[in-house]
Amino acid sequence: MKLILVEAIDMFRSRYVMEIPDHIDDEVALDSVTCEEAEEFSSKYIGHQISSHREITEEEMMRLYNEDCAPFHPWNSSTVHEVLVTPWQGQTDDQ
After folding, report:
1. How far apart are the C-alpha atoms of 10 and 35, rounded to whole Å?
2. Which site from 2, 11, 28, 38 is most exposed, i.e. has the minimal number of CB atoms within 10 Å?
3. 24-43, pLDDT tens digit by residue?
């Protein structure tokens, strides 16, 4: 079996509600959101957008794991494979 890395961006629609004085331009509210100074009012998960995919080796999988996850779970290759790699669910040619 080969390993395929699929990279995706998760998207959320977020809403923010702010009080601003009547004489202040609405752009101040947009700036507050951009600068992450506003409190989130609500959010809704929209879905994934796949950005890329490629075949990777076991070694590359572990390099990516070490970059992304190892500080939280210092696992070896077999544990990473068992816990985090999605197993093939379909039929193979020999079935």
Report:
1. 20
2. 2
3. 999 999 999 999 999 999 99
Q: Which two tokens stand for residue 42?
A: 């609500």
Give the DSSP H or E segment for 63.
helix 58-68
Confidence of residue 71 (pLDDT cuts 50, 70, 90): confident
Which token pair is 56? 């990777």
pLDDT recorded at residue 72:
75
CA distance 46 to 54: 24
- d(C-alpha 41, C-alpha 16), whole Å: 5
Dump strand ranges (E) for the chain: 3-15, 42-56
In terms of residues, how long is the chain? 95
Question: For residue 28, what are its two tokens?
Answer: 């101040």
Tokens of 58: 């076991």
Who's near 74: CB < 8 A, 6+ residues apart? none
